[in-house]
Amino acid sequence: MLQRRPLVHCEEIAARLKKTRAPIDRLNVPAEPGVYAIFVREAAQLRVRDTVLRGLIYLGTSGDIASRLREWHFKSGGSRFSTLRRSLGAILKDHLRLVAVPRGSGRDRLRYANYCFTLDGEERLTAWIRDNLEVGICPLDARDADLRAIEANLIADLTPGLCLAKWPNPLADYIRELRRQCADEARRAQN
C-alpha cells in the first residue's frame, strides 16, 4: 500500500505520479482521494493531427481514485462518463472502427455530447487503453488538499495533451472538433 501523507507542492506530486507509473493491470489503486496521471507507454504512439503524444497525456483528481479509473476510464462502456475515453475514442475512431451512439435514451440533453461507442467499439477502445497506456497515482489526504487547485496547477505546469482546459492546449480545438463529430454521429444514430 502506498504511504499517504499531505503533499502540497506540485513538483512532489508530479514526481510521485512518475514514480508509481505502471501498466493499468499491475497498479494497486487505493479507494482514496488523490491525483492520477495517464501516460502513453514508451513503445506506443498516440498521434493527434501532426503531433505524436508521448509520456503524460491526461491528469485528473478524484475523491476515489480506484473508482474513477476502474469504472470510468478503463471500463468498457465508461465513455458515457469519461472525458478521457471520449477524447481517445474521437482520436482513434477510424483506427479502431468506432461508431458513436447516444449514451442513453430519454430526454437527457447530454446523451449526444457525452456519447459512447457501440459495445464492440467500447471493447476495442478498452483493449487499446490496456495495451498502450499506463497510470501513476498520488493519494492525498483530502482534508489537507484542495484537489481542484492541485489539478489546475499540475495541468498548467505539466501540459498533458488530452487535458483540454486549464492550459492553452494547442490541440484542444482540434480534439473538440473530433468530439463534436462523434456527438453528431450519435445524434444521427438516434434518428
Polypeptide structure, described:
The structure is a single chain. The chain has helices spanning 10-19, 65-73, 83-96, 119-132, 147-158, 172-190, and strands at residues 22-23, 34-40, 46-48, 51-53, 55-62, 100-101, 116-117, 133-139. The protein is of the alpha+beta class and 191 residues long. The protein has one domain. Residues 1-7 have low confidence and may be disordered.
The major pleated sheet works out as: 4 strands, antiparallel
| First and last CA, distance | 49 Å
Low-confidence stretches: 1-7
How many domains comprise the coordinates? 1
What series of H and E elements makes up the topology?
HEEEEEHHEEHEHH
The rough form would be described as: globular
Give the helix proportion (percent range). 40-55%
Give the overall pLDDT as a whole number: 87
Helix count? 6
Strand order of the largest sheet: 1-8-2-5
Classify the beta-strand content into a percent band.
15-25%
Give Rg in angstroms.
16 Å
Helix/strand structural class: alpha+beta
Number of strands: 8
Output the keywords:
single chain; 191 residues; 4-stranded antiparallel beta sheet; alpha+beta; 8 strands; disordered N terminus
